[in-house]
Amino acid sequence: MNVIKYTEHDTDTLARTIYGEARGEYFRSDGGVASLVCVANVIVNRSKSPKRYGETLAKVCKRPYQFSCWNKNDPNCVIISRVQKGDDKIFDLCLDVAENVLKGQWPDLTEGANHYHASWMKTYPAWSIDRVPTKRIGQHLFYNL
After folding, report:
1. Which of 26, 18, 83 lies closest to 44, judged by CA?
2. Do 107 and 38 form a contact (C-beta atoms < 8 A)?
3. Inter-residue contact 111 to 88 (CB < 8 Å)
4. Strands lying side by side in the sheet with 135-137
5. Are 12 and 80 within 8 A, CB to CB?
6. 0.90 exceeded by the pTM?
7. How far apart are CA 80 and CA 84, in angstroms?
8. Is residue 20 within 8 Å of residue 40, measured between CB atoms?
9. C or N: which end of the chain has fewer Cβ atoms within 10 Å?
10. What gap in Å lies between CA 53 and CA 24, rounded to an integer?
11. Average pLDDT of the residues of the chain
12. pLDDT in tens, 1-10
């Protein structure tokens, strides 16, 4: 098992990314907590390739155009920058998910995926063309590239 090095800032950034990317998935019968865990799994999986994705979990999350919730023009960017513990039960859950995934308490439900996108997108990302998703949870399709 790989030991994940992380700081409190990494945990907070991971939780905000989970919240921004998947909070709506929590309420879906085919999503739930698993949807939140899967977003965390993808970020942790990317952190295992620091030269490609970033040297810290926070840098992986905030790498430009990787997680749309951090794009300045995305409405989620304002939401995730302002939410605080205790403001929203789903954000508090995202903090718990981040902590538990980083501690290795919860498994990688994506089976190694390092990319995902929403299944409802009219045009799928170029990187997903001719690729078969390894997993679908909620409205997210997961890929191991």
Report:
1. 18
2. no
3. no
4. 115-118, 140-143, 135-137
5. no
6. yes
7. 9
8. no
9. N
10. 26
11. 95
12. 456 789 999 9
